[in-house]
């Protein structure tokens, strides 16, 4: 009987070590899928006050439109353009719209075509429409 007790303690100690190793592996990130990069995304009002900001991890090949949809509230698109995000909305009369800045520069393409790289800063800014004369 004394021998079985020692054997049981040895087996339990071995099981505990395996469980500890598995837990540490996942806690320290060894088993999780790693992000390929991170971008910082903000939503800003007309005065450029930040209403929402998130650092978003992404995998190679993910689209900005999908990342925004997953990470922000009240996101809608129409004809490839972002129409609402958080509390910012493009009104029916288009007196303002949501412009997209990438690293401080106005994006030449819409959100559906945008590409980005690790470390980029993307800003969605409520912008007053000023007609060109």
Specify the number of helices. 2
Beta strand %: 25-35%
| Annotation, overall tally of beta strands | 8
Give the class from helix and strand content and strand pairing: alpha+beta
Summed over residues and divided by their number, the pLDDT gives a mean of 88
How can the largest sheet be summarized? 5 strands, mixed
Number of domains: 2
Which strands sit side by side, in order, in the main sheet?
A: 2-1-8-6-7
CATH topology of the largest domain: Ferric Hydroxamate Uptake Protein, Chain A, domain 1
CATH architecture of the largest domain: Beta Complex
| Euclidean distance between termini CA atoms | 97 Å
- CATH C-level name of the largest domain: Mainly Beta
Radius of gyration: 24 Å
Q: H/E order of the elements?
A: HEEHEEEEEE
Q: Low-confidence stretches at least 5 residues in length (pLDDT < 50)? A: none
Gross morphology = elongated
What is this structure's SSE topology?
Layout: H1 2-27, E1 37-44, E2 50-58, H2 64-71, E3 76-78, E4 81-85, E5 88-89, E6 96-102, E7 105-106, E8 121-128
Parallel strand pairs: 1-8
Antiparallel strand pairs: 1-2, 3-4, 4-5, 6-7, 6-8
């Amino acid at each position: 009987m004394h021998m079985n007790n020692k054997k049981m303690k040895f087996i339990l100690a071995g099981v505990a070590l395996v469980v500890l190793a598995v837990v540490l592996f996942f806690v320290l990130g060894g088993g999780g899928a790693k992000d390929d990069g991170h971008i910082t995304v903000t939503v800003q009002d007309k005065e450029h006050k930040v209403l929402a900001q998130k650092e978003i991890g992404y995998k190679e090949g993910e689209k900005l439109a999908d990342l925004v949809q997953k990470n922000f509230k009240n996101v809608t698109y129409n004809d490839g353009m972002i129409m609402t995000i958080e509390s910012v909305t493009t009104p029916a009369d288009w007196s303002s719209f949501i412009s997209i800045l990438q690293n401080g520069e106005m994006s030449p393409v819409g959100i559906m075509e945008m590409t980005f790289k690790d470390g980029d800063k993307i800003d969605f800014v409520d912008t007053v429409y000023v007609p060109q004369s």
